């Protein structure tokens, strides 16, 4: 198993405040790694570091063997890592087809064609239909994004990230703002889409412990900027001390459900 | 199928508009014909301006700078360097504007909204004061005379100035508008154009889809400068003079005015805006000395009542009529 993403001794400090300290982990092909921890544990800083948005103040972050510290979102996309945010990011006045087309064009290196026609590019259109179909958006191709339902906007946001044909995708609370009845179906859609799109690893940032328990192959818990646990779900949830220490107040939520 | 029908309507409307414009020299008074020439000039300039404003979401308050470079380019080339070929003048003036746009754009595309607007405004004012201060090169406040160009090597000596303007030069500029319009149509419907729209809608999301936001803004800026300069060259030949007023910030404001008047969200909005503005201004100037006041009132009404401009108003009326 070769590591797709590898961090060695990552540290990130803002002045005197230490957000991350000596975080080392590796993510291999075929894994779905959940990153959990209470607010302020350093999750956001950590995912910003491994997606090349933030440069760590210490340590190394590698993607497919090369250093990606602070490379920025554009280079990240070019190298094969996509990211979808907790808050829905769409292009309000653009149609579903146009939104997905932006990602497909950028991924196939056709962005800078000034005089080519988007409409008559058959390869592009079929790829757009293919991606839309995975997310159940094929009937909405010509709909303006701003007119979609909240759930559809979320799916479109994620669909456009998948349209980059990434090797790794980072999903930041993909089910936030979605009714709990729909959460599992969305997660299944995402994992299925990942398999169909050839995604090699998924990083999931998630508060919902049901989802984390059910879909992760490994759980990395952060607290106070450090890795407190890095285990498969069975071991993770089998250790009440770790769950209590790491997940904090979320335990109450789980307990109430039982 | 609906799409095909819409396209047919659009193509017919464009062909009709070109036919009407081509017929104007035979039908209208020379005064009105000479008004159409600046409308062609502004139409071309605004096609470029709106690539940046309507499509990329960057509102420049300094694009008169590039119109002025086009005008002064035509002036310097024709009366100081003896270049009479209009093809060469358009090309060289356009490239000069692109060259001048490079440093401006490099700095300005790092910013958006008001900061972008203020920076472009500042560059425009810088150029305006340059035109005033460097009297020897620019002729100061009187500017430089622009000589009549040759078209495809033909200098039409047998025609007087008016006959040249409402004759060959008119058709030449109409053709230029059509050709540059088609090129711009291709650009906004290309992958590049789609990326510009994505940048306008959500630059952060665009970046995560691998779009190099600043590079695309930069290229759009250069294209807009080229179009503005071509418009400026036509304006200068029409008036026979390149003067600093062309670079003044109120002229940049007029570019914005025209685009908003016509509707910046539509490809044809700026063209409609250019023609409406020229004729509105001319009628108001003839009717009252308070024409600026009435122009201002018009803009306020447009922004409040028809934020999508005259094109938006026309679209609303059209869809209402069809529903009946």
What features would you describe in this structure?
- Chain A has 258 residues and is of the alpha/beta class.
- Chain A has a single domain (3-257), classed as P-loop containing nucleotide triphosphate hydrolases (Rossmann fold, 3-Layer(aba) Sandwich), CATH 3.40.50.300.
- In chain A, 39% of the residues lie in helices and 24% in strands.
- In chain A, the strands form 2 sheets. A 6-stranded mixed beta sheet of chain A has the order 6-7-8-3-9-10. In chain A, strands 2-1-4-5 form a 4-stranded antiparallel beta sheet, covered by helices on one side.
- In chain A, helix 3 (96-107) crosses helix 4.
- In chain A, 44% of the residues are buried.
- With 324 residues, chain B is mainly α.
- Chain B has a domain at 35-245.
- Chain B has a two-stranded antiparallel sheet with strand order 1-2.
- In chain B, helix 11 (249-262) packs parallel to helix 14.
- The mean pLDDT of chain B is 90.
Q: What does this entry show, briefly?
A:
By secondary structure, chain A is α/β, with parallel strands linked by helices.
What shape does the CA trace of chain B take? globular
Give the oligomeric state: heterodimer
What is the largest interface, and how many residues per chain? A-B, 39 and 26 residues
Quickly give the structural class of chain B: mainly alpha
Could you tell me the CATH topology label of chain A: Rossmann fold
Number of alpha- plus pi-helical segments of chain A: 10
Strand order of the biggest β-sheet of chain B: 1-2
| CATH superfamily annotation of chain A | P-loop containing nucleotide triphosphate hydrolases
Mean pLDDT of chain B: 90
Number of strands of chain A: 10
Helix amount of chain A = 25-40%
Question: What is the mean pLDDT of chain A?
Answer: 85
The CATH architecture term of chain A is 3-Layer(aba) Sandwich
- Into how many domains do the coordinates of chain A divide? 1
* Portion in helices of chain B: over 70%
Unreliable sequence segments of chain B: none
Distance between the termini of chain A: 37 Å
Question: Structural class from helices and strands of chain A?
Answer: alpha/beta
Q: Give the strand order, joined by hyphens, for the main sheet of chain A.
A: 6-7-8-3-9-10
Order of helices and strands of chain B: HHHHHHEHHHHEHHHH
Cα distance, first to last residue of chain B? Answer: 21 Å
């Amino acid at each position: 198993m070769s590591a797709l993403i590898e961090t060695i001794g990552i540290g990130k400090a803002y002045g005197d405040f230490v957000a991350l300290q000596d975080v080392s982990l590796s993510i291999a092909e075929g894994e779905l790694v959940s990153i959990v921890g209470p607010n302020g544990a350093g999750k956001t800083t950590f995912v910003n570091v491994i997606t090349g948005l933030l440069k760590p103040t210490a340590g190394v972050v590698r993607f497919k063997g090369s250093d990606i510290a602070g490379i920025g979102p554009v280079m990240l996309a070019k190298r094969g890592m996509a990211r979808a945010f907790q808050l829905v990011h769409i292009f309000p006045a653009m149609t579903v087809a146009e939104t997905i087309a932006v990602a497909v064009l950028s991924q196939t290196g056709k962005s800078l064609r000034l005089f080519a026609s988007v409409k008559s590019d058959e390869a592009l259109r079929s790829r757009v239909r293919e991606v839309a179909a995975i997310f159940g958006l094929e009937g909405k191709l010509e709909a303006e994004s701003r007119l979609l339902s909240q759930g559809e906007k979320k799916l479109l946001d994620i669909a456009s990230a998948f349209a980059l044909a990434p090797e790794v995708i980072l999903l930041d609370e993909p089910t936030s703002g979605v009714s709990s009845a729909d959460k599992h179906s969305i997660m299944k859609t995402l994992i299925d889409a990942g398999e169909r799109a050839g995604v090699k690893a998924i990083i999931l940032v998630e508060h919902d412990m049901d989802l984390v328990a059910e879909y992760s192959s490994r759980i990395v818990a952060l607290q106070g900027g450090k890795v407190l646990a890095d285990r498969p779900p069975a071991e993770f949830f089998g250790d009440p001390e770790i769950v209590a220490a790491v997940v904090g107040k979320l335990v109450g939520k789980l307990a109430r459900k039982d | 199928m609906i799409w095909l029908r819409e396209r047919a309507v659009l193509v017919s409307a464009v062909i009709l508009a070109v036919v009407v414009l081509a017929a104007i020299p035979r039908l209208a008074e020379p005064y009105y014909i000479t008004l159409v020439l600046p409308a062609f000039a502004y139409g071309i300039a605004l096609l470029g301006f709106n690539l940046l404003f309507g499509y990329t979401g960057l509102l420049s308050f300094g694009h008169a700078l590039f119109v002025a470079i086009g005008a002064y380019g035509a002036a310097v080339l024709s009366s100081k360097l003896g270049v009479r070929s209009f093809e060469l003048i358009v090309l060289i003036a356009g490239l000069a504007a692109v060259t001048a746009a490079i440093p401006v754009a490099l700095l300005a595309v790092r910013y958006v909204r008001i900061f972008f607007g203020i920076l472009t405004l500042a560059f425009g004012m810088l150029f305006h004061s340059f035109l005033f201060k460097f009297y020897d090169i620019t002729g100061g406040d009187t500017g430089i005379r622009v000589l009549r160009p040759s078209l495809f090597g033909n200098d039409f000596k047998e025609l007087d100035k008016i006959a040249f303007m409402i004759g060959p030069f008119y058709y030449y500029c109409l053709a230029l508008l059509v050709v540059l319009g088609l090129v711009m149509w291709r650009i906004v419907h290309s992958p590049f154009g789609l990326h510009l729209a994505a940048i306008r809608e959500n630059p952060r999301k665009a970046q995560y889809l691998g779009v190099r936001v600043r590079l695309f803004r930069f290229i759009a800026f250069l294209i807009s400068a080229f179009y503005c300069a071509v418009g400026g060259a036509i304006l200068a030949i029409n008036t026979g003079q390149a003067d600093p007023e062309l670079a003044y910030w109120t002229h940049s404001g007029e570019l914005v005015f025209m685009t908003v008047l016509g509707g910046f969200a539509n490809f044809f909005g700026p063209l409609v805006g250019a023609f409406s503005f020229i004729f509105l201004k001319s009628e108001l100037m003839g009717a009252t000395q308070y024409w600026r006041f009435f122009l201002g009132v018009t803009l306020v009404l447009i922004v409040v009542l028809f934020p999508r401009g005259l094109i938006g108003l026309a679209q609303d009326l059209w869809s209402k009529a069809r529903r009946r």
